Structure formats: C-alpha cells, structure tokens
Amino acid sequence: QSLNTKAIVTLASVMRRPYLASPHLAVGTVSEVNYTALRDEAGIRAVIFDKDNTLSAPYETVVHPKADQGLKNAMEVFGPSNVAVLSNSAGTKDDPGYEDAKKIEEAMGIAVIRHDEKKPGGLKEVMDHFDDVDDASQLCMVGDRLLTDIVFGNLHGMLTVHCLPLCSGEENKKDNKIASSIRTTENLVLYTNWWGGNAIRKKTIPHAVWKGESQCSLVLPVDKLAKDPSQSGDAGASS
Q: Residue 44, by phi and psi: left (phi above 0), alpha (psi -120 to 50) or beta?
C-alpha cells in the first residue's frame, strides 16, 4: 500500500480527541454481529466492510471461513446492493485498473467502492454509492483498524463495529508489516485495562439512534453463532 496521508493528517485530531478511535461495538469477528438488530433497532440501512483481516486474509480475494457467515447474514438482511467493501488497497489508486476490486466483487458478490482518498477519507464516494442512505448515521462501518475504519465511521456519525484481525501466524504473512504493528499498538492502548484506555472508552461518541449494548444488543446470542468453534469470538467485547 502507498502512504496513507489522510490517516497521518487525521492523527492530530485523534490525539486531541482519542475517543474518535473508540468503536460503538467490539466483536471477535463479523460473524458475531446481529445484522437484523442493526437494521431494525439502530436505523442502519447499509453496511461497509473493510476487507483485509476483516472479511479475508490480507490481499486475498475470497472470504475467510470465520467471516463467511457474517457476510452472508449482512447480505441477507440488507441485500447485496446495500453491503460493500471500502478498502485502503482494492478500489484505490494502488489498484491499477481496479483489477483487485473486480476479483473481490466476483468472489464475494458485493461491490468494492472506488475511492481516491484512503480511510479515514472517502465519505463522498461512500454516500454516492448507496441510493437508500440519506445520512451517514444510517451506515455501519465494520473493520479491524481503529485509526482508519473506526475513526472514519466516528468522524461522520456512523455506527462503528471493531473486530479482531482474522489471521495470525503463517496465514497473516502477506499483511502489511507497518499496518500490523500499528494495529497491535492501537488495540493495546484502547483495550488494555489501564486508566487511559478506560477513559477513552467511556467517552465513545454516542450514535444518533442506537443507545448502547445494554439497551439493545447488537451481538448474536451464543446459540445463534456458527457451530465452528473458530467463530465463537471469545476475545470480543461490547463497548
């Protein structure tokens, strides 16, 4: 990937307002999200997924087994036209001729939004993509990166869902090493039980419709999750 200048510029804002990186919901994988509740209880009309380590292994085009049921559930609830990928690689200027985007669209059955400015930029292209969305608060942004995916969603009033990276070890060998190191640091700062992380999470920006996990759970009950133990998401925790 090329340098993400938008993320660097936005970092100054996050330093002043670190709660921009605090998601409304944190889960193990996208398969743990209750997409019906997103639609019916949180006013969400469309879902945007990051790709690498959210839906697939880094730089792969097929859906990872841990994310497969989640993507299917999202498409069933919202319809394929209201589910899309917003990646900082596929669909950007780093993707010559959008060849990777086209492969992903064929493999996953959903659109990859074309955008010149990387997350946390790209709002205009996202809003232009979804015909049924009138306001950014009707969008749910799902991804594994706090400083790109979650900050992007929170900057614009979306409902934000943070998931843990799908892959580790040999399966994660293609991951961008710098991005991987930053992601580890992000997660340690926000989720480790220390006063700073606790203070940040307490200031999570409220969503316009959804009033919190205690009022309406957006996580599937354990008995509704896929039987595959790898999709149990033991590390997930709601905000």
A: beta
**Integer Cα distance of 54 and 28 in angstroms:** 10
Distance from C-alpha of 102 to C-alpha of 233, rounded to nearest angstrom:
30
- Are the beta carbons of 157 and 208 closer than 8 angstroms? yes
* DSSP result, 135-159: SGGGEEEEES-IIIIIHHHHHTT-E
Token pair for residue 197?
Answer: 């992380």
pLDDT at 15: 83
* Spatial distance between the Cα atoms of 213 and 209, rounded to a whole number of angstroms: 12
Helix (H) / strand (E) element for 83: namely strand 83-85
- Contact (Cβ atoms closer than 8 angstroms) between residue 94 and residue 10: no
Least Cα distance to 167 among 53, 31, 51 occurs for: 53
Tell me the longest C-alpha to C-alpha distance in the chain.
Answer: 47
Bond before 58 cis per omega within 30 degrees: no
Average pLDDT across each block of 10 residues of the chain; the chain has 239 residues. List them in order.
56 85 98 98 98 95 97 98 95 94 97 93 96 97 96 97 93 84 93 96 97 95 61 39
DSSP run (H or E) holding 49 = strand 46-49
Buried b (16+ CB within 10 A) or exposed e, 19-39: ebbbbbbbbbbbbbbbbebbb
